[in-house]
Write a structure and sequence with these properties.
The protein is an alpha/beta fold and about 210 residues long. The chain has a single domain, classed as Rossmann fold (3-Layer(aba) Sandwich), CATH 3.40.50. About 40% of the residues lie in helices and about 25% in strands. A 7-stranded mixed sheet has the order 3-2-1-4-5-7-6, with helices on both faces. Helix 6 links the parallel strand 2 and strand 3. Helix 1 runs antiparallel to helix 2 and helix 4 packs parallel to helix 5. The protein is globular. The termini are far apart. About 45% of the residues are buried. The mean pLDDT is about 95. Bound molecules: S-adenosylmethionine. The site of S-adenosylmethionine has 21 residues, from helix 2, helix 4, helix 5 and strand 4. S-adenosylmethionine (SAM) binds next to helix 2, helix 4, helix 5 and strand 4.
């Protein structure tokens, strides 16, 4: 399997026209997803794990929003976060995540729609590689903030062009203006796929809920 084939499968999910096409593309990709991402040098989970470890105390329930096959959850488990809940739009990705022993519970939910959790259910919500082209919209952040308890954490990556062009800059600022969260830090922009040649720069954001 060449890198161009792997990049093609990655590009395929960026061109989904709606949620149904997105879910189908991930359903089809689920079997090869981890091999492809690791071969392309997927760096977002490693950077995000550093920020979670730096800020989020152990012991609470953490929501992994857009958990995929559970690669990030597996890293969090190693770091001692042992009460993890994952959500995803793709059933097949959820099945792959379920094969790992990382999550307490996994649910099919769509980010951008109302999430089926009570307010303040989690000590932190993390979302890695999901705020990118033709994936979850900025409105999904409202729900991540709602389901996290006050003084909790919302940590996520956003592709840089998507941040500027698809409403994330405005949504993140308006949540701050409303006192719903406060930005604690953000990473430098970095290459999410350093071994591939299709990278768009990405940033990690860390917010504390109000
Ligand atoms: C690039 S993968 C990242 C997966 C995982 N976080 C990781 O780091 O390996 C993006 C994931 O987000 C999911 N996803 C995309 N849009 C979504 C949405 N609106 N709601 C829920 N899940 C979504 C996809 O099904 C896919 O599993």
């Amino acid at each position: 399997m060449g890198d161009s084939e792997r990049s093609k499968r990655l590009q395929n999910v960026f061109s989904a026209r709606d949620n149904s096409e997105l879910a189908s593309s991930y359903d089809e990709w689920a079997e090869d997803y981890e091999d492809d991402m690791l071969s392309l040098g997927y760096a977002v989970a490693a950077v995000a794990a550093g920020f979670v470890g730096r800020h989020v105390p152990l012991g609470g329930t953490v929501l992994d929003a857009g958990a995929g096959t559970g690669m990030f959850g597996s890293i969090l488990r190693v770091l001692g976060y042992d009460d993890l809940v994952g959500i995803n739009i793709s059933e097949r990705m959820l099945e792959k995540a379920g094969e790992k022993d990382a999550y307490h519970a996994l649910h099919r939910m769509v980010m951008g729609e109302a999430l089926g959790f009570d307010s303040g259910s989690f000590s932190a919500a993390v979302s890695v590689g999901v705020f990118t082209t033709n994936h979850a919209p900025p409105e999904a952040l409202d729900e991540l903030v709602r389901v996290v308890e006050p003084d909790g954490w919302v940590i996520f990556s956003v592709r840089k062009d998507v941040y500027w062009n698809e409403g994330f800059e405005q949504k993140q600022a308006s949540l701050e203006k409303e006192g719903r969260w406060q930005r604690v830090t953000m990473s430098e922009a970095f290459q999410p796929f350093p071994a591939g040649n299709t990278s768009h720069m990405t940033r990690l954001f860390v917010y504390k809920t109000g």
